[in-house]
Amino acid sequence: MFLIRLYTKQCINLPLFWCLHESTDSTVSVLIEHSVLISCFINGEFAVYVCQLSTLECVRVDMMQNENKSNHHCHLYEGKNNILIIRRAQEFQMTLQFNQPVNPSDNFQIEFYIGINTYMLNGTKIIISFGGSQTGNWTGRIIQQQGDACVVGITPSADAIIGKYYTSVAVIGSNGISRTQKDSGTDFYLLFNAWASNDEVYMPNEEERQEYVMNENGYIYQEESGDGRQWYYGQFVEGILDACIKILDDSHMPLVNRGDAVKVCRIGSAMMNSQDDRGVLVGNWSDNYSLGTAPTFWIGSDQILLQYVNKGPVRFAQCWVYAGTFNTFLRCLGIPARVITNFNSAHDNTGNIVTDLIFNSVGNVLELNERLTRDSIWNYHCWNEAYLSRFDLPAYQNLGGWQVVDSTPQETSDGYYRCGPCSVKAIKEGMLGYQFDAPFVFAEVNSDVYKYKLNSQTGKTELLSVDTTYVGMKILTKSIGGNNYEPMDITGTYKYPEGSSKDEETMKNAGRTYKAHLQYDDEQGVEMTLEIPQERVKIGQNFQMAVVFRNLSEDTRTIHGLLVGSTIYYTNIQRAQFKQETFDIVVNGPSLFEQMSVPAKVNQEIFVKVEFTNPFPFSLHDVRMAMQGPNFISYREKLYSEIAIGTSITWMESSVPTRSGNTMVYAVLDCSVLGNVQGNWAIGIKA
């Protein structure tokens, strides 16, 4: 007879082989679930040990932010907590730290959630398992396992919902499932991916991706000559990504639709204006901006979006402000986008893809009848283009590529003030039956102008002429290249050359007829004075005089002049003409000038000076100035109560550059009688 003793021993955090080799005498061991039953003879006694193995547990998750953000072209996004930002349809890596090495029999999975009520069927809950076959469109793999650490690779699907996800690691055992607690350090943002060929926003050219996704600096053209204003998009500024997500949340857009770039563009178009949904910007085309900020005062989008997050709809905007801010929204979420300017842009209120203008005859002059005329033509209008595949349209038509999206509130579309996305190719071919808003966009760039004269006695109108060339005279966007601000003429992407067979086919497709017409333009805002000799001029002697033009507007003006000199009687009757000469001159508007104390270097203080001289024959009151430069100087504002006639002011600020490379400094000046005064300077920051 021998004595049997039973021992129970906890083997916390010890590998299996340690338990099996605990005794060296005759031993029999059996693995039962997470316990090892060991029986053996020790000193003539038979003993049974029940050794409990510890349950597998994930103790730490490393999202490998720096590596992943760099690989996913998200390294420029700013933020104090260095949250992970990645793009869909591309693998990212995570390191899972367990309390013990993972055995082949262990079963764990990674779970991703977006939103509150999450379900696997609608893509708001994602489960990645590694023990067997995987379900769903997201995939995962174990890349490396060393000790108790495991590096895994996760590839989100090409149509995954964009937004903010949170992460959980679950271990499945005999006693159920244990999950890691919610940790903000494992949250991440998922964006559209222009680098992934199976993403609907895929753009094959790297130079174009750098321009239309990564470039923070832009130029918005306001004159056919190529003049305009630079604009800081600031899509990577801290808080802007959260602002863009908030815009989608404020629109009550269902999460399940946020993986569709077409729907995101359409919602964004509606939410950039506050016409009917308390969106980002309030429009104002008057001369009174006392309740907000004049549209000409904005330097870029970041201040607008951050103000929207904190205070709600931002006052005020016009078309270029809407377009610049919408461009930031699109690029920030990963959708390639650019700002477009259409010169002589028609606004077809009647929906007949024709611009109808009705005039009254007043003597020999025609005056526009504003009461009867519903259509209009803007000297320029800005909108956006987004680069999309358009899987929602027939594949055989190949209508993907650049799409018009316009957030300036002009006409409603499906009940909201928005426009697009509309295929640029469809506009060029006159295929106006494809969504969205193709007839309106077509009229903006290619409508004929029908000019009528109203008979005041009969009330009937008489067709005077039809102009087929005035609308959409030129369409410009910024050229590719970070600091290349030359305009790129893209008129040919919207329309064929006037009178060509292709143009005729397009017009036929759109159901159009056209003839010729002459359009008159009244240039205003320029004051002219003559400076004549002080001394009496004698007959037979030469004399000099000066014609002085003063630009009273905020824009550059081109003057076509005719100078005629005649001798007259004292009764003001002309006797003879002795001089006639034509001339053309360009009169620039006021501008700002910048100067730096020393060349810019990282982490070295530098002083920036902005100067302005009042060129007008009147004082300027309540003058606001602002300056900003990404990675160079934070947003600053200054108020001057008065700038007297001919007075110069100098504004100096100190800054410490934070990152080497090329950047821009933006400055703007605005007051009640003057806007669109700006200065923009390229700065090179040395390491």
TrEMBL record:
BP-aspect Gene Ontology terms: blood coagulation, fibrin clot formation; nervous system development
Molecular function (Gene Ontology), one example: protein-glutamine gamma-glutamyltransferase activity
Catalytic residues identified in the record: C319, H381, D406
Domain of life: Eukaryota
Classification via Gene3D superfamilies: Immunoglobulins, Transglutaminase-like
SMART domains, per database record: TGc
Domain called Transglutaminase-like: residue spans: 311-409
Family to which the UniProt record says this protein belongs: Belongs to the transglutaminase superfamily. Transglutaminase family.
Protein name: Coagulation factor XIII A chain
